[in-house]
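Lab notes, practical 5.
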Amino acid sequence: MLTLALIGLLGGLITAVSPCILPVLPVVFLAGGTGGEGTGRARPEEAAERRRMEGRPTPAGDGASAVLTAPASEATVRTPRNRRPYAVVAGLVVSFAFFTLLGVTVISALGLPQDILRYIGLGLLVLIGLGLIFPPVERILEKPFARIPQRQVNKEGSAFALGLGLGLLYVPCAGPVLAAITVAGARGEISADIVVLTLSFALGTAVPLLVFALAGRRVAERVAAFRKRARGLRIIAGSLMIVLALGLAFDVTAAIQRSLPDYTSGVQKKIEDSDTARQQLSGLYDDSNKELSRCQDGADELRSCGQAPPLEGIDSWFNTPGDKPVDLRSLRGKVTLIDFWTYSCINCQRAVPHLQDWERAYKDAGLRIIGVHSPEFAFEKKRSNVVSGAKKLGVTWPVALDNKLTTWDNYRNRFWPAKYLIDAQGTVRYFKFGEGEYDKTEKMIRELLRQADPTVALPKPTGRAMDDLTAGRTPETYLSNLRIRGYVGTPLVDDKPSLYRFPKEPLPVNKLSLAGTWTAGYEHFTAGPDARLAFTYRATNANLVLAGTGKVTVLVDGKVTKTINVSGSPTLHRLTDDDEARTARLELRLDQGLEAYAFTFG
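Output from the prediction step:
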């Protein structure tokens, strides 16, 4: 739970400095300083100014004459500390935590429109703006807080209400952490983990905003121009809040945000989309899959790992009659193998022949295979690409397109490929992550089939090579500025064309480098002028997912071995193909504009 809280806190911090928060920062800054009070003794002219702002008569007119005739107690009164920054942030945290988790439930119970919270937030912004412009309106807003006994709390009521409104309006700006929270809230399935994640995220967003509000207060207290023009400052702040509300209502701020660079995307992906974060965020929506932790990857015996989670959030199906969905409950009495895969992954492709063998050998005995296609890349979400890739591989069993990774999360999965075996009663009994140990998986299939029907006649094991194919082989390598491993040479520059040079020293095994011009993005690298890539690998064959239009010249140990014509959407291309594993230096020369996604090795 501590790790989950840390992920939520960091996710909140990132959100609070992201472009989506920029429109509210001026409001937070001015809200922190518009209280007008500082600590210490107030100067006589300041006391008179406060009386005018609060609508109270001065003892003897205005200006210097009022100062001369004001009572000593009025001139030397110690003013309370301006707590508006804390009130704004407190309202924001309360608003976010409560309405994100319970907003959907409350709205549904009351039969209110789904966007009512946005309208409430906009209304609060307008009211607070009017309150800053017209003091009587502010006093009306503060009346609900007047009975709270703590000293001066009622004076910060409008600031707290402002925080409530801001919390409602900036909620949509976030990444995977907020997605996990909002999905749980939408489903009404609140757990201790979700509450911890929500509170830590809210606190994370609050810290930078509090710093900004405190900065506004400090400027207002220290800069003479702010003290002398306090009334004008309040009018400016109020007007700005009303303008912000109108901008949000008519989506003007969205256009501004789109024009700004997403400067937090890189760090957000590193933190919220890391392996640790995915593992922590998976399965937070309900308790149905917590028992999966009883299973161990590639265990030597069948175990009871809880009821199989449903196949949810599926975009579409194919390889079924009429492309209709498959309900796991309809497969009771059968043994089901759930295979998480993606069509361009060479590791998944190498697993397909084993699945084909098992379907042919055991379908009549009661085995059913379902492929859950959970994409790694955006192009793998396109149905036509998946259907075409599956056809080329010979995938004939039902396939579900899990484009939102909902079922992936339901099964707490983190690997391609991954296989889950479900018995005839619908209980997960075994799972295997990655390649290898096919003989063990087949053994578990046979055992489950016998448990389902002790009289079943099973054929001999399929007999394919059952060794671990990953031993001693160069691992899969993503051409991604955040997920690449084994890179050496000129430091990578994110998302803009840059010139690279190969290192002078020979590349060690499992290391790669760039030369020429490349644009290093999160999902792929794009070749520019004179783009070259070197990779020292150990495997029988090397493969690369490529997209675009152009040619790739392949050199192995300095000799040209082939030229590949690339055209169209991302597709896996075979670069080398030897009879046995070897260590070699691969060099690729790519035409400008080609996109390279990921290396795989066999």
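Observations recorded by the TA: Residues 340 and 372 are 5 Å apart (CA to CA). DSSP finds 20 helices and 13 strands in the chain.
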